[in-house]
Design a protein that fits this description.
107 residues; mainly alpha; Helix Hairpins; 5 helices; 58% helix; 0% strand
Length: 107
């Protein structure tokens, strides 16, 4: 078995991608409830603009960290609470993601 990284080069796009991944049936039934998805949809443009302005257009460490932290709470944390594997949405995470990245062999 070989393992490789997820290839993330743009963390801000990754954060926002959790809306599509978690709330639309692109490949599997969406794991999040409609209330959470509506909240994500309402926050999408704000997070996109905030991260763009604070982290990319004109880097401001305090505002960038605030934007990334807030947007991570809104977009990534709801999915993480489902216990589903972020690398393969069709499966539950095997072990604690912080400890194994969902794959025990990585421990």
């Amino acid at each position: 078995m070989s393992l490789s990284g997820n290839g993330v080069t743009d963390v801000f796009s990754q954060i926002l991608s959790y809306y599509e991944m978690s709330c639309t049936p692109a490949s599997v039934t969406p794991p999040l409830d409609i209330t959470t998805c509506v909240a994500m949809k309402h926050t999408y443009a704000r997070c996109k603009d905030w991260m763009q302005e604070s982290c990319i257009d004109s880097y401001d460490a305090i505002n960038c960290n605030a934007a990334a932290g807030f947007c991570t709470q809104v977009f990534m944390e709801p999915y993480e609470r489902t216990g589903m594997n972020p690398y393969d949405m069709s499966k539950k995470c095997e072990g604690d993601i912080a400890d194994t990245l969902c794959y025990p062999v990585t421990k």
